[in-house]
Amino acid sequence: MGLFDAIKGILNPEIISTYEEIINSHSEAFRRWKGRQIVGTFSSTYNFSPSYNDKYYIATHKSEILKVEKEIAEEKAFERRKQEVINAASKYPHAFYALVKRLGLSFIPGITVTLPGERKSKYAKKQAEQAHQQKTNPNKSVRFVLDYIDIDSINRLGSFINTSSPYSGKKVERSIKTLDKEEYEKLYLYLYELADEERKIEASLKKEDTVIKFEDEILCDKKRSTYYKKFVDFKLVTTNVEEYCVTHLSQLDDFINDIIHSEYKRITMEYPLGAKYFEDGHRYSKIPKEENVVNNEMRIISLDNACKKYDELKKKYPIGVPALEKYYSYDDGKNSVDLSIEEVVEREEEIKKFQIYAREAAFYANWEQTQIDFNSKCRKLKDSVLSEWGCYKYNIPFQKVKENGEEIKGELTVWQMFYSSFSEDESVDTSYYPKKGENRKLASQLLNNEVRYKSHIYDKIVNYIEELRKTYKNEDEIYVKFACTGLENRKEVIEYQFKYLKTELDKRGIKHSLVQKSPIFIEDQVRYVIIDLVTTNEQLRENISMLLDAKRYCRKYCSKEIRFNCFSDIVYITVLKGLDKQEMITLNKAKEHEIKMKAEEKRKQEEEEIRKEKERQQEEQRKQNEILSLRSCVSSWDTLFLTLPYNYLLPYYPTSCDFEANNEEWNNRWLVWNFKNTPGKTNSLQHEQALSNLIPRLTRLLQDTFGLDLSKLTLVCIPAASRINNDARYRDFSERLVRITGMENAFGHIQIIEDAVPKHLGGTGIPVLQFDESFFKDKYVILFDDIITKGNSMLRFKNKLESCGATVIAGVSIGKTHHER
């Protein structure tokens, strides 16, 4: 500060005093006021040495600074009130939330509690939903949405999105700390009420908790809701019933179980039949047995009465009741349906009918089954006794009775066995079966007794009947019926044609008689063998129907108990069977199909033969081409006897030569001798050195000669004189050579059966060999020997292998014997 400013300060002490008061006593207000002044108001040295003018300006604006101080005081007071509001929201959450709603303020995120009346128990929701459904039937999907969308939540979300901070033009997240001033002031005015209001709300919520728990734990539970009033009466509880129940649930459950148990014992004693029937029908119910019985007492009383009536009906109609139940039952293995006991007792009139007709219906059902069993035996016997005979089966209609007395159509399937057959219809072509056309004349001759079959035909029939009798304990069960329907001279024909057969039957005690329309009596339980000379299909059905009608007529007036087991199974034997038009057409179609299939099979066979021949020729041509290709590889080689190309690695001069061998020739001799690996003459190291020398050289020779075709060849080493020498010489050698070259190894496919006997001991010097001929078929062979002298061994092996189906391409060796240089 300069001298001039100091003088001004001395002359104006009130200015300096006011300035210092402001700086020292109102510093916070001064700083805010100063920050509002425009740039340049104060001197540039103000911050470290204010001028008199700076002090004067500040002192003369004391009133403004004091106003700012008042603003600050008001702001601090508001901040205290705001903090009290924030603290109250945390301390009295329920009362504060209620106050926000009462003042109509927008939703404040984070200030969310449940007030009394806002919660609903499951019971209350269910009651409301049922009431709503009684008034209207809204779309199911709409109900689902309304159940799960909270409209208040949507409104709160909207308030959150559209609320701006009072301190910024930007939208900020609304919270208890970001309300505007007006909202804080409104809330502050009522803070004194919150403590008392919070206590009231908490008390209401606690009471509401009890009510909700009562509704959810008691009223929503069918068992508890039924018995809780009896429980509180038993406990003499008159006030706070809900609270008592929810705090004594285990005692309530024990009380209920005791009541249910005593009620169960009473019901089962008073209505034992109904209770048992009910329990049997609810064996897999999820509801406990005793509770289920007690809950359904009226149903059990009704069932008890029905059970008593059912027992009376069973005694009165012992056959009718089970027959009716079986008639109306259904079970396919997956689903089943039965009449209830109440439905049964309401059908007494129907049961009466079942009592009358049930056994009759069972008779016909059993008859059909016994006929099926009889058919099986007859058909099986036909294959063993009448193997050359024909057979057809026919469904014969007959009347039968259902359990309720209703007459319905049934069918018995009957087998017909026949020795020969003819075509009934002359218009049908019999060119495929000329005998069936010719037999029409035979049928006429037989019926006129002009000719008859020889006895051996009837011997077959007798044998069949005898075998059939053996399958039944009572031999009298088989009964023969002779039929020649529609003939005026019927008896004469039967006597003439079946004289021999009847005699044979009599010898064996086999009963027989004629098929008649109105017999005086009908046999009880028998198996009929109907024997006919010439039969058309119409006559077959007529004869069988006559027996069935006779059986029905006899049973109608029969009072014997056996009538319910009086089955009459039937098999039909015809010497000459008539084939109707449809059967002949079927036979012709079958024959045409057979001819067509044979022709098709023949065509396929011919095509297959042509295809195989073509493949054979192609394969043969391929082999010839391969042989030519392989032989062309060795066309430059020398030949043995002008037939077998051969090559070798080195000249071999035997010790018998009349000149002195040089070092190279001695090395070659030792190489050959070491390769031979003769036991006692060569050690393993020398043999290994020989192989290491020779195998690479042989590999180069063969690869250079055959190239990629080398893998097509099979290596055959010409065996040594003995098994021991052969194994020592060729096993390891052959395995290593084929591994490198890709050739196939034949070493294991030639066995030495007997070692060679040397020539000087009187032998041939050649071992006895055994060849795996199947292995050598179609093989391309390269022969190998250690030394070629004249080539006899290779030529002999070539001939042998080619006799086994192989093709010998060439021979190779280590050396070729030379006697001159």
From TrEMBL:
Positions of region (Disordered): 598-618
InterPro entries, alphabetized: PRTase-like, PRTase_dom
Origin superkingdom: Bacteria
Family matches, as CDD domains: PRTases_typeI
Name by which UniProt lists this protein: Phosphoribosyltransferase domain-containing protein
